[in-house]
Amino acid sequence: MPDLPDLSSRNPDWWRQAVVYQVYPRSFADADGDGLGDIRGVTERLTHLAALGADALWLSPFYPSELADGGYDVADHRDVDPRLGTLDDFDAMVAEAHRLGLKVIVDIVPNHTSRRHPWFEEALRSGPGSAARDRYVFRDGRGAHGELPPTDWQSVFGGSAWRRVPDGQWYLHLFAPEQPDLNWDHEEVRADFRTTLRFWSDRGVDGFRVDVAHALTKDLTEPLRDVGDVGATGEEALDHVPPGSHPYYDRDEVHEIYRDWRKIFDAYSPPRTAVAEAWVPGARRALYARPDELGQAFNFEYLQARWDADELRQVITDSLATARAAGASATWVLSNHDVVRHASRLTLPPGTDENTWLLSGGHAPAVDADAGLRRARAATLLMLALPGSSYLYQGEELGLPEVADLPCEVLQDPIWEQTGHVRKGRDGCRVPLPWTPTGPSYGFGAGGAWLPQPASFASYAVAAQDGVAGSTLELYRTALRLRRKLLEGEGLTWAEDTPAGVLAFARSGGWRCVTNLTDAPVVLPPGEALLSSAPLDGDGRSLGPDTTVWLA
Fold first, then answer.
1. DSSP per position, 71-138
2. Does residue 223 have a cis peptide bond before it, meaning omega lies within 30 degrees of 0?
3. How many CB atoms neighbour CB 499 within 10 A?
4. Helical (H) or strand (E) element with 473
5. What distance in Å separates the CA atoms of residue 504 and residue 492, rounded to the nearest whole number?
6. What is 148-163 written as a DSSP string?
7. 260, 293, 302, 255: which is closest to 274 by C-alpha?
8. Rounded to an integer, what distance in angstroms lies between the CA atom of residue 403 and that of residue 396?
9. Which residues pair with 507 in a beta bridge?
């Protein structure tokens, strides 16, 4: 393993206001021409992230996997999928990232494994009552012959969260059946993940994104509790039970695990960072972000907020307060590998069911791509002005829209099959990136792409936007460069004299951000325009609809 420079030692708090770029490796760049993105492809394109101005890359799962859930079904937490490369390739990627001044964050997937994991294969061989089965959650079924699931718990992907095996027992899978849940009451499970955290930290990884951080611990006391009318997935399931008491979400016991992990993180110099993916209400989310636990947690309220000034102001105010209560910094995100890209989502009429829209191929309602991009650029510039860390998803710097019209026969997301073709899934935001305006996969790789790219991707390609004044790529580059110069402090002051539908706030150092969320121009307050998401109207003193400007 090469000697990896630890550039984050220059500022151990680099993560508090970092710009983190999420790489979904199978869709980023394909170096070997097999149609699937890989680690060497990431390494070859790291200069794109450095030129963009990102502080870190977050690498989505790259572990051995049968791809039952896009790589989140992990067969070995301490290796690289051979289709994506080797550990040597990973080490070379980390070394190149550090050489370019980029930190590296990797996904850790602790709630479940793949059914191909050696532990689960051993559990199936060993049979009921075996020690091997105790690493997972196996139970006898209900009914006269055990033919009914042990509880009414539901999978996030649809249907029962229990799957029966040939010997008659059932195992828990809160996600796909190929993703059996681990039993975090088992000390061997906890010890194995301590080893995993040290394994990647020793290879130079700067931090971890913790998948489904709120679901590790379950109430496994007998008899297992049904959820009943509470609901099974998402925050709505947590709004109807006392905090910390849901049978398998956001239980208080989970925080013992993260306090244990923090001891590992702090044993390194500088300490390794972590961010929780915890779909829980804000007050509960703060617990995951405490300094003695993970240190930061994703805030999805900004992503879920409507394009409405009052709603966004409240979300921003609450999110900053939640982060302060935890001693953490806020996090902001508009797109990721699980949601409709914001260049499309933000222009959907209020109340639109996104799955229905996807099932229509993006035609009902029709989306104005230009209007969507204008709003997306404004939302991004607003996000980048906020105190805290901004998480960017690959391709948003190109203005990529959702590919909503993927034919059903090419869909890969397990949601499509598991819901009986009722929910289309997340493939539309995972279509491989366009790097050049020509070629069989627009520069993604020599052998085509594992999901079909639309012809419109040619105009969004990196090479088509590079150096082009006003392009979305150049807007991101300029914004991230300015942001580094302007950022100081972690607070903001709202302007109270703004017109209805306008958001305005000042940051430390006196610079301001103004966003017009209305459908009519508004007069700008005094100040020099540093950057705007769209050209300013008239003499530069008027801010057009769906536009954000930074003022000195």
1. T-S-S-TTS--TTT--HHHHHHHHHHHHHTT-EEEEEE--SB--TTSHHHHHHHHH-TT-TTGGGB-E
2. yes
3. 12
4. helix 472-486
5. 10
6. B-SS--B-TTSSBSEE
7. 293
8. 13
9. 492
Neighbours of 513 (CB within 10 A): 24
Please check the confidence at residue 198 and state whether its pLDDT lies above 50: yes
SS3 readout for 245-297: CCCCCCCCCHHHHHHHHHHHHHCCCCCCEEEECCCCCHHHHHHHCCCCCCCCE
pLDDT of residue 11: 81
Given a contact cutoff of 8 angstroms between Cβ atoms, the answer to whether 360 and 340 are in contact is: no
From residue 543, give the alpha-carbon distance in Å to each of 1, 378, 474, 521, 525.
53, 11, 20, 5, 10
- Nearest by Cα to 453 from 385, 415, 398: 398
| Residue 306: partners with Cβ closer than 8 Å, 6 or more residues away | 312, 350
Angle between helices 254-266 and 187-202 (to 10 degrees): 30
What distance in Å separates the CA atoms of residue 254 and residue 275, rounded to the nearest whole number? 15
**455-485 residue pLDDT tens:** 999 999 999 999 999 999 999 999 999 999 9
Closest C-alpha to 394, from 471, 299, 305, 473: 473
3-state DSSP assignment of residue 507: strand
Count of C-beta atoms within a 10 Å radius of residue 71: 23
Nearest to 452 by CA among 425, 472, 434: 434
What does the pLDDT look like over 350-384, one tens digit per residue? 999 999 999 999 999 999 999 999 999 999 999 99
Alpha carbons 286 and 320: distance in angstroms, whole number: 11
The backbone torsions φ and ψ at residue 542, rounded to the nearest 5 degrees and listed phi first, read -125, 130
Kind and range of the H or E element at 475?
helix 472-486
Instruction: Name the pairing type of β-strands 547-551 and 512-516.
Output: antiparallel
281 vs 301: CA distance, rounded Å: 9
What is the DSSP pairing of strand 103-108 with strand 207-210? parallel
- Whether 213 and 294 have beta carbons less than 8 Å apart is answered as yes
Name the DSSP class of 551.
Answer: E
| Contact (Cβ atoms closer than 8 angstroms) between residue 66 and residue 114 | yes
CA quadruple 254, 256, 260, 266: dihedral sign: positive
CA distance 501 to 419: 39
| Residue 510 CB contacts under 8 Å (≥ 6 apart), including other chains | 552
User: Which of 32-36, 191-195, 279-283, 295-299 is least confident?
Assistant: 279-283
Q: What is the pLDDT of residue 4?
A: 44
Strands 502-507 and 522-523: unpaired
Strand partners, 551: 512, 529
